[in-house]
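Quick one, probably user error.
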């Protein structure tokens, strides 16, 4: 196992612990979860802070959610494909929020220097990184929509952008105290069919 593989294994073991304990997690706990000796961690990372930063970078990355989107069957009806996509994106954002929230609550702000050769996360906190990440998500959702291109008034890319915009808005803070967010099914119904009972009937 090379250094990068060892780092990936350690991060995978650390992620659920960091989400639970934040910066209070110990390298001993991480080592036990990974099934390795504690000294092995320090042959891959210089200190615990670097492990925590690597966990944030992994959580920010979209590789996992893109794999989930890519595994959705194109044989399913469009509404089912979009419901599965909504769940994959929701779970990704929830994992990210839980981990980053736990770290911030326990005082870890991160942002240490990257190691030489490290690949930056595709959706880092930079504007360019966020743009690339959102574009990758949009393109992946557009691929799910592509089989129904001929039935749509807009391109799959525009429908995908609208879908993600509605989904992100649904996951934000409610507009009012008694606001009930759209369910995934309602969100998809609005996206595909609008809000009119009989489209074209409103003046």
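Nope, works fine. Designed sequence:
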């Amino acid at each position: 196992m090379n250094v990068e593989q060892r780092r990936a294994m350690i991060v995978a073991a650390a992620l659920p612990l960091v989400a639970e304990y934040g910066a209070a997690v110990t390298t001993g706990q991480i080592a036990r979860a990974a099934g390795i000796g504690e000294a092995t961690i320090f042959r891959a990372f210089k200190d615990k802070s670097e492990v925590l930063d690597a966990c944030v970078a992994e959580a920010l990355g979209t590789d996992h959610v893109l794999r989930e989107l890519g595994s959705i069957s194109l044989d399913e009806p469009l509404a089912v494909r979009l419901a599965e996509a909504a769940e994959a994106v929701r779970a990704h954002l929830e994992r990210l929020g839980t981990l980053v929230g736990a770290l911030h609550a326990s005082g870890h702000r991160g942002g240490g220097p990257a190691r030489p050769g490290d690949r930056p996360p595709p959706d880092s906190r930079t504007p360019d990184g966020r743009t690339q990440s959102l574009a990758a998500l949009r393109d992946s959702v557009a691929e799910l929509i592509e089989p129904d291109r001929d039935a749509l008034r807009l391109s799959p890319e525009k429908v995908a952008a609208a879908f993600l915009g509605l989904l992100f808005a649904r996951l934000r803070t409610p507009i009012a105290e008694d606001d009930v967010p759209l369910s995934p099914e309602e969100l998809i119904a609005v996206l595909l069919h609008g809000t009119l009972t009989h489209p074209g009937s409103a003046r």
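The two ends are 67 Å apart (CA to CA).
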